[in-house]
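Running this now, will post back.
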Amino acid sequence: MPSVSTILIPLFGCIAVGVASGAWRLFGWSEARVLSRFVFLVAMPITVLSFTRKAEVPNLAYAGLVGGYLLATMLSAGAAFLLSRKLLGLTVQEAGAAVFATTCGNAVFLGLPIALAVGSWAPPFLMLMICEGLFVFALGTSLMTWPAPGAAPPRGGVLGTSLGAAWRAGRNPIVLAFLIGLSLDVLGFEWPEPVGRFLDLFGGVAGPAGLFVLGLMLALLPGRQSELNPRALAALLPVKLAVYPGLCGGFVWLFTRDPVLTQTALLFTALPPAVASIVQSAHYRRYEAGTAALVGSGTLIGLATVTLLLLVLL
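Update: finished.
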């Protein structure tokens, strides 16, 4: 495994360039949105294809990884929902945005570059990204679109809303790239050398670009936070950054006894809240300011806690 400094110095260097670019107003929020779409829709899928052509096919232990992750996610989402409703007084729809921010981590911009740097963490990390894309997005969307008291139920009911959200999440370009690459790997497909070189060359853009966007948004987020509720941060961030990874790591170790899968589960669930939480809350107009505060403060604290986690694991 590479050393912590080998991973973190380039990682934090890219983030620092993004922070400086935002602080000096070289780029604004609209440019950050465009750059994030480039990373999410183009660069990261090509990176995933490049990786899967060299990776081993997942083994049966991944069933324990997925089971431990889903169990920890359900418990953590339940805790976040109850805290949001009982302690913070949010509606069901607002609590859905809080649950989404608490259970969806910054896997694309922060987690995947770390997992790819370690190597052995990347295949299970990508598997967890698929689970998150299907389950967490479906759960969050279902809650955020929950009918208000007295309102007509959504078309297809709650089940229809959940299945529709899962279907949209399943078309995530990164998820599709992983499934395509994995299928070709299972079939024994040999990539032509020029194609492989293209994938490696273009895929190398994704990590630095994603980390740059993360730093840029970190610099711009404070200006978009109209409220900073210390009570919400104190209630939800410990669930995201401590309880959730503790549960997931414990369940995965219990089910698999595999140190690599356990380490990957810890990293994946310990990541700070994803910027996608802001996009989702804004789209459904649910708890927008509170979500921005969770992501902004959670990213700062999460960078520190992920660093400590890597120091322990590596």
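The two ends are 7 Å apart (CA to CA). More later if anyone needs it.
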